[in-house]
C-alpha cells in the first residue's frame, strides 16, 4: 500500500509541476490538486472465486484564472486491484507497478465496450476540453443521465454525448476539490 501511495503522490507532483511550468505565475493563474478515493468495487473471496481489493483513485490538477475559470485540467485514474484467495493469500504480483488509465492508453481496453468507439483516455481528454473556459459551478451544472447501474452520471450535454460515455461524477468531484485547493 505504501508503494501505491508513493506512486500516486509522484503522479500528482508530476502533474503539478507540469501545470506550474505550463501556466507559470503570470496572469494570476492558480493551480490546485484534487482526488477521490473509492474501494466500492472490491469483492470478497469465496471457495470458488478469488476476491479483489480494488482502490480507485481519481486525480485532477487544474489551473484557474483570476475569474475562477478553468484554464487547464488534467484528470487520470489509478485503478489498482489486488487479488486474494479465500484464505487471504495475495495472488497478485506485488512487484508489478500499476499504471494509471492514461498510462495504459489503448491497453486499458475500454474501446471493446465503447458504443462510440473511443478509449478511456480519448473520452477523458474530451471531458477535459469541455471543462476549459468554465467555472466549477458551470462544470457541476453539467446535464447528466443514468445509463445503467455502472453509469449513473453520463454527460447529457449536446457537445459531449457523442464523445463521452463514461460516468463523470468522480471526475467532477476531483476537479472541484482541485479548484478549491488552487493557490
Question: Helices, strands, pairings?
Answer:
Elements: H1 2-23, E1 30-38, E2 51-64, E3 70-84, H2 101-104, H3 120-131, H4 136-140, E4 144-145, E5 154-155, H5 169-181
Antiparallel strand pairs: 1-2, 2-3, 4-5
Brief digest:
With 183 residues, the protein is of the alpha+beta class.
Describe it.
The protein is α+β, with helices and mostly antiparallel strands. It has one domain. Helices cover 31% and strands 23% of the residues. It is built from five helices and five strands. The protein has helices at 2-23, 101-104, 120-131, 136-140, 169-181; strands at residues 30-38, 51-64, 70-84, 144-145, 154-155. The strands form two sheets. Strands 1-2-3 form a three-stranded antiparallel sheet. The longest helix has 22 residues, at 2-23. The two termini are 29 Å apart. Residues 4-14 and 16-26 have low confidence and may be disordered.
How would you describe this structure in keywords?
single chain; 183 residues; alpha+beta; three-stranded antiparallel sheet; two-stranded antiparallel ribbon; 5 strands; globular
The number of E-state strands comes to 5
* Total DSSP helices: 5
Q: What is the terminal-to-terminal distance?
A: 29 Å
Name the strands of the widest sheet in spatial order. 1-2-3
Question: What is the percentage of strand-forming residues?
Answer: 15-25%
Please estimate the helix content: 25-40%
- State the major sheet: 3 strands, antiparallel
Rg calc? 18 Å
Order of helices and strands: HEEEHHHEEH
Low-confidence stretches: 4-14, 16-26
| Structural class by sheet pairing and helices | alpha+beta
The overall pLDDT average reads 88
User: How many structural units, i.e. domains?
Assistant: 1
Identify the overall geometry. globular
Amino acid at each position: 500500500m505504501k508503494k501505491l501511495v508513493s506512486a500516486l503522490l509522484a503522479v500528482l507532483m508530476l502533474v503539478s509541476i507540469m501545470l506550474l511550468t505550463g501556466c507559470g505565475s503570470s496572469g494570476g493563474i492558480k493551480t490546485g490538486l484534487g482526488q477521490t478515493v473509492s474501494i466500492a468495487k472490491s469483492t470478497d473471496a469465496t471457495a470458488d472465486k478469488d476476491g479483489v481489493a480494488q482502490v480507485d483513485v481519481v486525480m485532477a490538477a487544474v489551473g484557474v484564472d483570476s475569474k475562477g475559470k478553468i484554464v487547464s485540467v488534467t484528470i487520470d485514474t489509478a485503478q489498482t486491484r489486488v487479488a486474494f484467495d479465500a484464505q487471504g493469500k495475495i495472488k497478485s504480483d506485488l512487484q508489478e507497478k500499476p499504471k494509471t488509465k492514461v498510462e495504459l492508453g489503448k491497453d486499458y481496453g475500454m474501446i471493446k465496450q465503447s458504443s462510440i468507439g473511443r478509449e478511456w483516455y480519448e473520452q477523458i481528454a474530451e471531458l477535459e476540453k469541455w471543462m476549459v473556459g468554465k467555472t466549477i459551478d458551470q462544470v457541476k451544472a453539467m446535464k447528466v443521465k443514468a445509463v445503467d447501474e455502472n453509469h449513473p452520471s453520463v454527460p447529457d450535454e449536446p457537445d459531449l454525448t457523442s464523445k463521452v460515455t463514461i460516468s463523470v461524477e468522480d471526475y467532477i468531484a476531483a476537479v472541484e476539490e482541485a479548484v478549491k485547493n488552487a493557490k
